[in-house]
From TrEMBL:
<dbReference type="InterPro" id="IPR008767">
    <property type="entry name" value="Phage_SPP1_head-tail_adaptor"/>
</dbReference>
<protein>
    <submittedName>
        <fullName>Phage head closure protein</fullName>
    </submittedName>
</protein>
<dbReference type="InterPro" id="IPR038666">
    <property type="entry name" value="SSP1_head-tail_sf"/>
</dbReference>
<dbReference type="Pfam" id="PF05521">
    <property type="entry name" value="Phage_HCP"/>
</dbReference>
Length: 119
């Protein structure tokens, strides 16, 4: 069975920002790692539910949300996604149907940001 996913522009109603860790040099010449903005786009962001969450847990133990955006170069598992005051670590990025039109991103929501490993 072939599932055809189409991009419904009206559902891309959340402003999502993508960040990567970058080495930043301070005034003393020391380098530190900070999140640097890559791109801000419109997309969807929804928690996984019921059976879908159970199926994902068989493969990945921490995935909690699914996101769709238009195809964008440079978005990968080394990125972080921010929506409002929440930060998500990206677990997988899938080019839907290999058409370079839509990305499906599965990510983890960290409620306690001190637990998030960004190093």
């Amino acid at each position: 069975m072939i599932v055809i996913r189409t991009l419904v522009i009206g559902k891309l109603n959340k402003r999502l920002s993508f960040y990567k860790l970058a080495d930043i040099q301070d005034s003393l010449g020391q380098t530190t790692k900070e999140l640097q903005l890559i791109k801000t786009v419109w997309g969807t962001l929804q928690p996984l539910r019921g059976a879908e969450y159970y199926e994902v847990q068989k493969v990945q133990s921490k995935v909690t949300h699914k996101c769709y955006i238009r195809y964008t170069e440079g978005i990968d598992t080394n990125c972080f996604l921010k929506y409002k005051d929440r930060t998500f670590s990206i677990e997988s990025v899938i080019d839907v149907d290999f058409e370079r039109k839509l990305l499906e991103i599965r990510c983890v929501d960290y409620v306690n940001k001190e637990v998030m490993d960004i190093g």
